[in-house]
Every structure is written in C-alpha cells, then in structure tokens.
Specification:
homodimer, about 450 residues, mainly alpha, MgtE N-terminal fold, CBS-domain, Tetracycline Repressor, domain 2, 3-stranded mixed beta sheet, transmembrane (chains A, B)
Chain lengths: ~450, ~450
C-alpha cells in the first residue's frame, strides 16, 4: 500500500536536510503507516529518510515494505548501513531476505554482522522450505526453572526489545532441552507471589513442532491449540526456536491458495502471479492442460467410433457440449467441496460412506431438476417427444457419474497418500467426459 | 480429534467416583489434549468428568470440543452447571454458542447468569454476521492514562484470568473513548521506570476496526500490521471490544474456502459440508448448475444452426469436446489465478493492462503447444492434412479466448463491485463454450 499524501513534504525535508522534522516523521506515527507514506519514494530517498529513525524503529518500518522492495534496498544500499539494519530484523524474516540476495552481496554483508547473527543466518538457511525450521525465529526467551517470578520479569524486561514475542517464556535446562513453558499471562497473574519459581508455574505438557515437520501440520497445531507461538525442537527435544502466529496466517493463506490453484489444474506458483516468469507460468499451466487434453482426446476417439449413429441422428450432436458440461460442472462441485472439507478438517477419510451417501442424494435431486429443464428444451430440437427422452435420461446418469467420481476421487487420492487437490479435478474431468459420451450414445441407441 | 487411549480408565474412575484421580486427570495435561482424551465419552459422562476441573480450567477444556458437541452439552446438561460454565467462556465464543441454543433453553440459562454477562451476550448478539462486531470479545483491559507502569501491571495481574488477551492494554478516558494502546512488551520493558504513566508510553496512532466493518477487511488489517489483537470501536471511537488473532485465522480460512467454492460454482456453505441439510446443499449447487446449463444450451442452439456443415464433415464432431474443454480449462486457470491473486492483494485493479498482457503471452505459448499436439492427432482422423489444420487453428483461437476472458472477467466484476470469485467462472465457461463452437465451425467453413 503506497500513500502519496506526504511525498512532497518528505522530498522537501530531504532537500533541506531537515533532521528535526524527518526524525519526527519517522517516530510519531504507527510504523505500518509510516511505511505506507514512505513507499512512494525512490530507493535512495527512502533509504535516506529511514536513517532518521532509531535503529529498532527503522527495522520495524522496513518490515512493512513489500518483500521485493526490501530485497532491492538490501541489495543496493550502503553495506554498513544495511548490516546495521539486518542486525535488527527478526531472525526468521532476515533469513528469507538473505536467501534472495545475490551471492556476492550476501558475502559483502555477512562479514559486517556480529558473529552470533552470522551463525544464526547460516543455520536457519539450512532448513528446507515448507518445514517448521524454515519458518522459525531463534529469538526466544529461554530461562531456567530456578528463576523466580520477579527475576523472570526483570530478565524479560531486559530482553524484550530483542525478542519477536515475549508472550511465552520457555524453560530450558543447561543443555537447552525444553522443560516447560510459562505464559506471560501466568507470570503477570503470579506477581503477588514474586518468589515462586518458573519451575512451579510452568506447564510441562507442551505442544511442540519438530524442526522438520511440515508447515501445514504446524499450522494445524497452532490453530487447534489457539497458540500465539509454538516452540520448535529437534529430535532430542532441544529448543531451536519458535514460530509465531503471524507466520501461521501466511501458511494457512498459502496452503489454501495452493489448493485453489490445484483444483483449477494449475501447479501452485512459488511466486506472486505478477512476478513469476512467463515461461515458468506457461509450464505450470501447460503441463496440466496437456494431461487434460489427452483425456479429452479419448472422447474424440469415442465419438469417432459413433460416427454412424451421429450421422443418422445429427440433432444429437447439438447436445454434446451440454451433456459434457453438466457432468463436468457437477463433478467439479463435488470434488471441490470434498477437497476443501478435507483441508479444513471437516471430513476425515473414514467418513467416506457418509460422503458418498450424501452425494448420491444430492446427485439425484440435481439430476432430476436439470433433466426436467433439459427435456423441455429437447422437445423442440428432437424429432419426436420419445426421442427427446434421450436428453433427460442422459443428464440424470451423467450428473450421477459426475458427483460420484467427483466425491470419491479426492478420498481415493488422499487414501493413496497423493494430494487430493492436485489430482482430482483433472481425473474427474477426464472420466466424466468419456463416460458421458458413452452413456449418451448408448441411451440413444436404446431409444432411437 | 478423539483419542480413545484413556477412555476405559475414565469410565472406571467415574464408576468408582474416584475424585482424586479425576481431578488429577483434568488438571495435569495441556487442556487441548485433556479434551481429546475426553471427547470419546458420552455427553453425561463427559459432563461428569468436567465437573472435577476448576471452573476456569473447565471452560478451557470445553473450548477444545467441536462446536456441535459444545452446543449439545449446553443444550442438555444441568442448567446451573451450564450457567456456571457459560460465565467462564470467552465472550465472543459464548455468543456464537448461545445463538445456536433453542429459544426456551436460552431463556432458561440467561436468568442464571450475572447481570453483566447477560447484557454482554444480548449486546453481542445484535451485531450482523460477518462484521467486526460479530467477532469481537468484550473482555478487554481498559485502563486510564494516569495509571503508572507498576499500577498497570498490578491491575493486569488481578484481571489476567478473565481477559482473553493481556498482550495489549487499551487506554481509555472516562467515556471509554480509545486514547491509545500500550503493549505488554512495552510495559515489561519499562519496569525499570515504574512511575511512568500509560499516557507516556502509549501509542496514539492506533489501527482500529469499526464495529460494522467487514470481517475480511479486519483480517487484512491484522495481517498487514502483524497484530495480536485489534480494538473495535463505534463511530464515536468508543472502545467496544477486541478481535484476537485466532479469530482472524478463522476468517482467512473461511474467506479463502468461500473463494474456492465460488470458483467451482457452488454458493458458499454456511455450515460444515457434512452437516448442511441436503436440500440446502442441492440448492447451493443447483442454482449455479442451472445458470451454467442455460449457458450450455446456447451452444446447443449454435450447433443446431450448423447441422449442415457437421453432417457434411462428420469427423468435425469428434473434436467438439476437445475444443470446448481446451478453452474451458485454460479459461478457468486464468480466472482462478487472477481471483486468488486479487484476494491475496498481489493484483490491484489498476494493473489490468499488465495482467492482460501477460495472459496474451501465456495464451500464445499454450495455444501453439496444444495446437502442435492437436494437429498430430487430427491428421489421423481428418480426411486430408489440410483439413486437419482446422483443429490446431481452432485450438490457438479458443485458448486465446479462454485466457483473455478468464483474466478479464474477474477484473471487470471487481470493477463493478461484484464478487469476482462468484461471477467469473460460470460466465467464462458460457462465453468460451459458445465462442469456441462459432470459431470452430467458421474456421472449418473457410478451410474445407
């Protein structure tokens, strides 16, 4: 979001080198809004204005620019200033940005960082995309269980500005093994007993994420347990970092958007729609279009097989698109409903009987309804009212096939350990198209 | 999630009336896991076990049962115990549950609640679904700006157990007008200056939600500003409540799932897929199937118009489903990509030129590719290699039409203030089907 309201004033202040007003501009408003007002500036001007903010505030404002802009600034501005800024960016965001810098730029910046930050970046870089490790931040309040309530509050006060979240305290032993957690809520509620220790207060049955756990599974835990943050541990239960709620919203958004793309037969994009390379985009769409194309070719061969009938009853041809689309649309409705219900945890695999039972009823209702409309139209185009019966009969059968396969394929793919969103719709479309044609011509053969 | 591991033990403890062990069971584990272990019990047993937990803990465990179960328990169990529990449920969840009780049950429970809770429920019930008001909780830390850091911490300590979140303090004047916010982080960081007031610390440029603001817009603010909670105010800036991050995840999930349903031409369901009434479900699917059906009818009339050509070149019929599905699939890819990119804020309306430019290039690449495969097949089915050229030429044109309308209709609908997700795909399908047929036959007329 760019807000041009203050751009002229900002440019004027820069031209006049008006430090007092620039400092005031940087520090008065909410950091997010400050960022919006600055975003219309050129890189150099924007960077110059940023230097008037305190170091922490600067990192906070910077965090609101869009990612492409952030990378551009880190890539192009004065290395020492960049390093000073990088030092203050939350460790999880910092790694994501660092991985987008050119190799030579990263090599320029890294040596300018304190040793601890350098090691932190290198360590976090090593986790695979899509795992808990790739989302976590290592800035976490690790305290000993012998610390008292008042001692913990004091320790927290000293560290607060460096931590991404202070809302849980993680109690660890001398080897950093996770022993328990204390929420700041509990800590604050225990202020009247300041000499109790964290060991007394802590909850030891902690929900954790394994460092190589899939991000979707991590997001489910955070949602289910309503957590503000989840600790990330290695297989020996050593505390490595935490994942905070804002990253979980991103994961949920990413996963659901991927589902939508897969349902529409597009390989999920790793980049924004407007940024991804056009050849890459063509590939991600083309690969599924070709698969669907081969499925549709089967219908061409099936129809080829029925030329004699079609030539005799040419009016049947008019209804081919209608028949196929009725089956395809009801099938994609069923598939999408079942896929989204599985993604959001409303449907489990062992409920397949209930799912199919419901689909059969809905298919019957929908089939009868569309058949009635279809018959009303077919009477006009078909030679006789009896011949017109081919259309409603086919519609009932095709919608049944659509709903049945639409609902069962996602369940079957899930059972096989495949992604139901990716595989279902193309297969449903293929099956319904070819079965639709076969049903249509054979009902016509029977009746005509 | 039901975990049957402890069910036999729990039933035994209940049979023996073993208070000590039941109390221990209720209070030892993480509340979420305790809920999983209990969820396999019948309502009466589950309720009996719950009574062994402290009142706050009981509400916490109860919060992890699925909503249907929660409503069932509130509907059926002993009214006084129910009222005691309801008193402890966070105010936003409590209202949602209350609205699902039968009228007579609600009238039984309401008088048993303290006056303040009763009024709170009645007030929150009055906000429309989908607005900020319907999501908010009224349990919020409202403090005066003259309060000192140590005073605020103490006040917080006293109220902590009743507040849904203690991570922001809201500074209000005597009329409850919102003056500013102080994060608990700032408070804790300021422990060394305990006599500073909240007025000194508070940020006055606060991001707020209006009480009648759409939930999607609220979620965007929370995501953009990385908030743990957002204050909800009326038009006079009186603080009414807050919306917390967990409700925002639910909104994001709900909105994206609605998009997926609309893209597949299903009216979004208000209930879980397995719970919604079958007639209701049939209606939500049928209404769009009928609209799509009428669109497909147009293709039937178009084909009717071309019977002469089709009768002469019956091999053309075989490719009808292939032509239509190539256009339809590329169109639904484009529409889905543009819709999801708009929902996630990657594409703004004024970027339409860039979107269409990119789609034209991708359409060309995809069209040429599929045309090559199509020609290879058509040579076998068409009478001459020249006649076979109809297929690749049509494919290029139809994929172009699909991508172009697929990308532009969501933009146009957005511009008109309609929901792009709801309107685009059916219209794209209709337009592409009919244009596909017209293009196909006219290219055939030219070449044959």
């Amino acid at each position: 979001m760019v807000n041009p309201l203050f751009l002229p004033e900002l440019r004027e202040m820069l031209a006049e080198d008006n430090a007092a007003e620039l400092t005031e501009f940087c520090n008065t408003l909410n950091a997010g809004r400050t960022a919006e007002f600055m975003e219309g500036l050129e890189d150099t001007d924007l960077w110059a204005v940023l230097q008037y903010a305190d170091a922490d505030r600067r990192a906070e404002i910077f965090g609101y620019f869009d990612e492409q802009r952030q990378v551009g600034l880190l890539q192009s501005q004065e290395p020492r200033q960049v390093a000073e800024l990088v030092d203050r960016i939350p460790s999880d965001d910092r790694v994501d940005l660092f991985q987008q810098l050119t190799g030579t730029r990263a090599q320029t910046i890294l040596p300018l960082l304190p040793v601890a930050d350098r090691r932190d970046i290198q360590r976090l870089c090593s986790y695979d995309e899509g795992t808990a490790g790739s989302l976590m931040t290592s800035e976490v309040a690790m305290l000993s269980e012998t610390l008292t309530v008042s001692g913990a509050l004091e320790a927290l006060g000293n560290q607060a500005s460096e931590l991404e979240t202070i809302y849980y305290l993680y109690v660890v032993d001398e080897d950093n093994l996770l022993r328990g957690i204390v929420s700041t809520r509990q800590l604050v509620s225990s202020l009247r007993t300041p000499s109790r220790t964290l060991g007394d207060l802590m909850e030891t049955d902690v929900v954790v994420a394994e460092v190589d756990e899939d991000q979707e599974s991590v997001a489910e835990k955070v949602e289910h347990f309503n957590l503000l943050a989840i600790p990330v541990v290695d297989s020996g239960r050593q505390l490595l970092g935490i994942i905070t709620h804002d990253d979980v919203i991103d994961v949920v958004r990413e996963e659901l958007t991927e589902d939508a793309h897969r349902i529409a037969a597009v390989e999920p994009l790793e980049e924004d729609y407007l940024r991804i390379g056009l050849l890459n985009l063509s590939w991600k769409r083309g690969i599924w279009l070709i698969i669907l194309f081969f499925a549709a070719l089967l219908t061409a061969f099936a129809l080829e097989h029925y030329h004699e009938e079609l030539n005799k009853f040419i009016w049947l041809v008019s209804f081919i698109p209608l028949i196929i689309s009725a089956g395809g649309n009801s099938g994609s409705q069923s598939a999408t409903l079942v896929i989204t219900a599985m993604t959001s945890g409303q449907v489990e695999l062992d409920q397949w009987r209930k799912v199919l039972g419901r689909e059969v009823i809905v298919a019957t209702v929908l089939g009868i309804f569309l058949a009635l409309i279809g018959y009303a139209v077919a009477i006009f185009l078909a030679p006789t009212p009896v011949a017109a019966l081919v259309i409603p009969m086919t519609l009932v059968a095709v919608i049944f096939v659509g709903c049945f396969f639409g609902a069962s394929l996602p369940l079957i793919f899930q059972r096989l350990g495949l992604d139901p969103a990716m595989m279902s719709n193309p297969f449903v479309a293929g099956i319904v198209d070819i079965l639709g044609i076969i049903i249509y011509i054979n009902i016509a053969r029977l009746l005509l």
